[in-house]
Amino acid sequence: MTMRQHAVSDDFLRPDSINAFTDALRGAKYNVDAVLERLGEAGQEGLTRNQTMPALDRLGDATDAQADLIRLFPLQQIVPRSRLAAFLDVPALIEAGVLGAIGREGIHADIDVRPYGFTDAAGEWSGWVAADPIPGMDSIVTRTRPNYVLGVSPASTSLAQLTVPDRVGSALDLGAGCGVQSLHLARHADTVTLTDINPRALDMARLTLALNGLDLDVRAGSFYEPVAHDSFDLIVTNPPYVMSPPTDAADRLVYREGGFAGDGLVRHVVREGASHLA
Questions:
Q1: Which of 175, 178, 244, 270 is most buried (CB neighbours < 10 A)?
Q2: Rounded distance, CA 118 to CA 127, Å?
């Protein structure tokens, strides 16, 4: 299985391709509430331990579209091409880098497309987030790519809950990763700008935004460099949180390990942020 350097092709991000994919997800009721109900408490609890067996037991022999999407994405199982072809454009998803082929009949997910939802002052919201598959599923140890893109985590949901939800003209998602914070910001900011130093993270963010019908300003670069001449009403960031990275750069995870010591990274974000607040 080869590692792709970029998440999705630009062609796949066109509205017609994205709409076909999201229509299939909706048609299969691949949303937060329906998937949680399908997995049950045991299946959900198993996934918190990176164990798929309880969820697979819950799905049993079911071969409906929702069951196969759950197997394909959260459970990281190989699913027969013939079943997926009944409701997905499998060749297009393989070409885009979302899916991968194993032999003539097996299909696996190169990207984890997972339902995500929340409730805020504007009401309920439901959509999807694209990220790299969770490593270590069923205790299978594989090398994590340095440009690995984390999906929704307790840290990201905590930040979303802590962000002041006042209506603002402009917001900056600094180090956006897969774009979780931008989904929240788009609910109460007129314009949202995303930045990240990791090109793969920006690819995932673009896919996340496209899946949810959002056209936001995505820029590549470190910290405030991509917005050097811009100011914002609100800045949010979930920066790398391990401040003593491994000596070998090849073992450093971009999303997790920064090149600062002690509180240097947070100090830099706060001090530089002052000049970028409107």
A1: 178
A2: 9
d(CA 220, CA 202): 7
Dist. CA 158–CA 145, nearest whole Å: 25
Position 18, amino acid: I
Q: Output the DSSP codes for 96-139.
A: HTSEEEETTTEEEESSEEEEEEEEETTEEEEEEEEEPPPTTGGG
Helix (H) or strand (E) holding 218: strand 217-220
Task: Give the amino acid at 186.
Answer: A
Is 138-274 CATH 3.40.50.10420?
no
What is the value of pTM for the model shown? 0.90
- Where, residue-wise, is CATH 3.40.50.150 in the chain? 138-274
Instruction: Give the relative orientation of helices 65-72 and 32-48 as an angle to the nearest 10 degrees.
Output: 40
Neighbour count for residue 241 (Cβ, 10 Å) = 12
Helix (H, G, I), strand (E, B) or coil at 28: coil
For the cut 60, the answer to whether the pLDDT of residue 1 exceeds it is no
Q: Which two tokens stand for residue 2?
A: 């080869």
What is the percent of the chain where pLDDT is above 90?
Answer: 78
CB atoms inside a 10 Å sphere around CB 153 = 15
